[in-house]
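pasting for ref
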Amino acid sequence: MSAMILAISASMLWSSANLDMLIAGNIRRVTQAKIAANSGINHFIALNLDYSSLRRQATLHDGVIIPMTRLSSKTSYLVKVDMTCCAPERYIVKSVGYYRKGEKIIASHPVRATFLLK
């Protein structure tokens, strides 16, 4: 009887530890995607595009300002702009960070920022 209780306790402990490891892995992958998305916003800011250049590029490429850019073998980002959603003097930039395993997207995280026209 006590051996059975010990076996059940050990099994539950292993299951709990395994679940904690899976959750920690998911949190790490989402965090990596979030960092990639923030890198996309920083890249956009560094471009320092004026309004006419931004509108022209957004029109030509369906809103894509920075195409899919790889940071590492597992992380990348894509940056788009939406100029129709806000007041005339504002626009929203959306950067989506991705964490991949091979070609499969394991995690993604969007980051949005509102900008005023220069």
